[in-house]
Amino acid sequence: MSTPKPPSSEDLLGQKYDRCLADFLVKAGVGFSAGVVLSVVLFRRRTWPIALSTGFGAGIAYADCDRSFNPARIPGTRIISQLPGTEGK
Fold first, then answer.
1. What is the pLDDT of residues 40-76, one digit of tens each?
2. DSSP for 12-76?
3. What phi-psi label fits residue 8: left (phi over 0), alpha (psi between -120 and 50 degrees) or beta?
4. 63: Cβ contacts below 8 Å, ≥ 6 apart
5. Dihedral, CA atoms, 64, 67, 70, 71, nearest 10 degrees?
6. pTM for this structure?
């Protein structure tokens, strides 16, 4: 039996971009839907609830993508670098 090859860095980056795009579309869509419902039910068909909730959804998706590409921005995490000479130990 052979071990499977690890995915290349280009594939990992592509998967992250795909995940971020899908996340953006879902969260902005949910925000848009919630804004339409709020606009019709509570705010007498004004447009600002739609724009506001869509922006909230897009902002949350942007923050999630930022954390995906830069894990050092997650609160409470530390990046510990390896000391020279300890790679194989």
1. 999 899 999 999 999 999 999 999 999 888 877 777 7
2. HHHHHHHHHHHHHHHHHHHHHHHHHHHHHHTSTT-SHHHHHHHHHHHHHHHHHHHHHH-GGGSTT
3. beta
4. none
5. -150
6. 0.73
Say if CB 29 and CB 57 are below 8 A apart: yes
Residues in the chain: 89
**CA–CA separation, 16 and 65 (whole Å):** 8
Comparing CA positions, the residue from 66, 72, 77, 37 lying closest to residue 54 is: 37
**Distance between CA atoms of residues 85 and 71, nearest Å:** 25
